[in-house]
Input
Amino acid sequence: MILSKKTLEKLRQLINEETEYRSGPKIVQFFNELGFNDSYGQGFPSRWYFTDQKLEVINGTPELDKCIKNVFAPVNFIGQYGALDSYIKDFNQFLAFDKWKVVRNGADIIFQKLDKVEIDDCDIAEETENDFLNREFNDVNVKGIGLEGVVSDVLQYRIKEIEKCFSSGSPLAVILLAGSTLEGIFLGLAIQYPKNFNMAKSSPKDGNGKVKQFHDWSLSAFIDVARDLGLIQHDTQKFSHSLRDFRNYIHPFEQMSSGFNPREHTAKICLQVLKAAIFEINENLYKMRT
Output
């Protein structure tokens, strides 16, 4: 299987951030299981660069197939197979242009060769996006969520800062601040309602099936658990994952290698995601107390 540069970039994101956050040592371990013999130490390059280099080496070899199977190994997603299927579906949108498809058959990950490129109807996706952007929120106040300590004041200040950045035409700042603010809100809720978050079906587990500590959760995990708990709606969950993807461009190398140029429209989606999440959490927070 030979993958295009765009698909390899998506695979790198899945390895480094999305399926789980892998630190430098963990990434080295991941690729050493594919036949490399590297060690982590002083002078280690950025995680993005290291992963790109390794994927370039194994592209078109059996090790690439093994790499993808390791990323999507169902044993690493015990209790969160819905999230696994979502990762696979997302990856298949890229893989389709290489005329391949990943399929999960129970505990097995297999590959299907496609005769032609299969993509979803773009018009439907665009209409859904417009519907989401047209939602109006009269009262978006993070203080209503009732997070402990002064974190509410900090988050509320960030929201004002985000709106200033949007008005001044600074889309990258909007994207990065919106992503970190959303993650801060979810982390604050998890600390306040640990039982609810730990018992959610999408709560991320370690290799032994134990729920990870909250500081080890990715933004992706927080988004899916918030949906499981009924704190946010399906469309907000969907577009929150888009915000999560854009937020990864906080790494300059990631932005450079992908050629990403933030636009006002992208920033508008991210700001709308944050507003929608805060509004819906305020509306649904009672579910955490019953």
About this structure: Confidence is low (pLDDT under 50) at residues 121-127.
